Amino acid sequence: MGLLAELGEADRRLTQRVAAWTSPSVHGTLSAVEEMAEGTKLWCGVAAMMAWRGGRRGRTAAAAGLAAVAVAQVASNGVCKRLADRPRPPREWIPHDEVEDRPESSSFPSGHTSAAVAFTAAVAPTWPPAGALCAVPTAMVAVERVQSGAHYPSDVATGAAIGLAAAWLVRSTPRLVLRYWR
């Protein structure tokens, strides 16, 4: 079996296992967090709270987080989804009705996950406790995307990698620009 076939089989097994794995209360909690994260509402709200209550550190962390979300969204939704055009996991793999409410866009990569990871990874270096708190809904968003049948685990992993790269780019750009101009 080739590497791509093995990855596809691992995606199928993990998707089916995660989709069938949660209790109704966990499923409801994951869905509520994902709904808040839809359209980056959650991260914009967290950034507003950080800027309002966190002083200079909060404003710096919020700005870095929102900039990283913007970069991640352009990369994942604006570029990668258009290039990949991967279909969503088959409906028969998902044992609940939430599969009927998923988007029609490409499955690859997970834009929700890329935004969540980008925000959290950009916030954490400036304000570690806030980054640690943001990691909780970030992980919940990532799990929910597979559990709901919207994404394969590889879509979520790639979305997380894009989010990390976006956060690194946003955090590194000022240093790189200053180094270039010196």
Structure, explained:
- The protein has 182 residues and is mostly helical.
- The chain has one domain (3-181).
- Helices cover 76% and strands 0% of the residues.
- The chain contains 7 helices and no strands.
- The chain has helices spanning 3-21, 24-37, 41-53, 55-84, 111-123, 128-147, 153-181.
- The chain is globular, with a radius of gyration of 17 Å.
- The model has no long low-confidence stretch (mean pLDDT 90).
Strand and helix layout:
Blueprint lengths: L2 H19 L2 H14 L3 H13 L1 H30 L26 H13 L4 H20 L5 H29 L1
Helix pairs in contact: 2-6, 3-4, 4-5, 4-7, 5-6, 5-7, 6-7
Mean pLDDT metric: 90
Fraction of residues in helix: over 70%
Q: Number of folding domains?
A: 1
Largest sheet: none
Concise overview:
This protein has 182 residues and is mostly helical.
Features of this protein?
182 residues, mainly alpha, 7 helices, 76% helix, globular
